[in-house]
Amino acid sequence: MTSASPAASVVVPSRGGVRRLPILLGGLHRQERDDFEVIIVLDGDIDRSRIAVERFIAAFGDRLRIVEFPENRGRVAALNAGFAEARGHVLIRCDDDLEPAPEFVDAHVETHQQNANAGVVGLYRNRFSDTRYARVYGRPRDVRFREEAYTRPVGESWVYWAGNSSVTRATYDRVGEYDADYSAYGWEDIDYGFRLRQAGVRVILAPAAETTHNAAAVTTRVRMKRAYYSGAARRLFDEKHPTALNGQAVEETRSSTLWEQLVALESTVLSTGTVEKAGAAIDCVIPFLPRYIAEKLVASGVEAASLAGQQTEQNLKRTF
């Protein structure tokens, strides 16, 4: 690798990642190829993450660089700062809670070599603690999500743009930065996927780039909270791109009018102050319910939280 032109740049936005970053960097150090650089963007170091990263400098040498914000500026700002520093031909976004397999970088680079004018997504394989939530909802939903993603029409693959994705430098320069209007939690990635589609860039799901994800949403409480904040960010996406989804759900599938009515009713009692309490209550009861009913209870709570978030008028600035 020459310092001026590595094959790839792996850009990692991180906040509060002192426990996650060593797992990520360990995986990147075990890659099958070494003609890539790693750029860690610390979005305000609140837990001595820099020290955790610096322990890997001897292993990576000048292939590892740190960009540090003195205070929290948000994930979009971290991503844009990392990509601005990147020198690689392929720019890989890699969130700090991933655990890349040895073929991770190679899968992104080779997929771009085989597909001109493309964006590449590696889906997550979520790792859960062994909880009732994981058994009735988290793990089954994770499997269904990947199955549905691979059977979705190619023209709709942009909706899966997320924390394991890549474009070439030429594409990034043409499409531009992540949209800084997404200052809270989520949807900056799906927005970018849609902008790729608008620019005529085909988004490809690459099975070889699938990556273990140490899931943060390991309870209904956390999952509903994230769905609520994500729903609020979805509202911004719909305002920017009113015909992109036409009311379609991305992650959750509404199966019937009766189900929609149930979710809509449940959403009316959820707010910033109640969504975590509702999720915690569901966590308390699902160990005592039959599996099917427990799964439906969690699913309705998650969908209701997302819908409530979409309907909120609050400017949610919470980051995760």
Account of the protein in words:
The chain is an alpha/beta fold and 320 residues long. The protein has 2 domains: 8-214, Spore Coat Polysaccharide Biosynthesis Protein SpsA, Chain A (Alpha-Beta Complex), CATH 3.90.550; 220-311, no CATH class. It is built from 12 helices and 10 strands. The protein has helices spanning 21-29, 49-54, 57-60, 75-85, 104-114, 132-151, 169-175, 188-198, 220-240, 257-267, 275-285, 291-311; strands at 8-14, 36-43, 64-69, 90-94, 98-99, 118-121, 124-127, 164-168, 202-205, 211-214. The chain has a 7-stranded mixed sheet, sandwiched between helices. Strand 1 (8-14), helix 1 (21-29) and strand 2 form a beta-alpha-beta unit. It is globular, with a radius of gyration of 20 Å. The mean pLDDT is 92.
* Lateral strand order in the biggest sheet: 3-2-1-4-8-6-9
Q: What count of structural domains?
A: 2
Beta content comes to: 15-25%
Q: From the helix content, strand content and strand pairing, which structural class follows?
A: alpha/beta
Low-confidence sequence ranges: none
Helix and strand pattern? EHEHHEHEEHEEHEHHEEHHHH
CATH class category of the largest domain:
Alpha Beta
CA-based shape: globular
**What integer value in Å does the Rg equal?**
20 Å
**Main sheet, how many strands, which sense, barrel?**
7 strands, mixed
Terminal-residue CA separation:
35 Å
User: What is the number of strand segments?
Assistant: 10
Our count of helices gives 12
CATH architecture of the largest domain: Alpha-Beta Complex
CATH superfamily of the largest domain: Spore Coat Polysaccharide Biosynthesis Protein SpsA, Chain A
Mean pLDDT: 92
CATH topology annotation of the largest domain: Spore Coat Polysaccharide Biosynthesis Protein SpsA, Chain A
Helix content: 40-55%
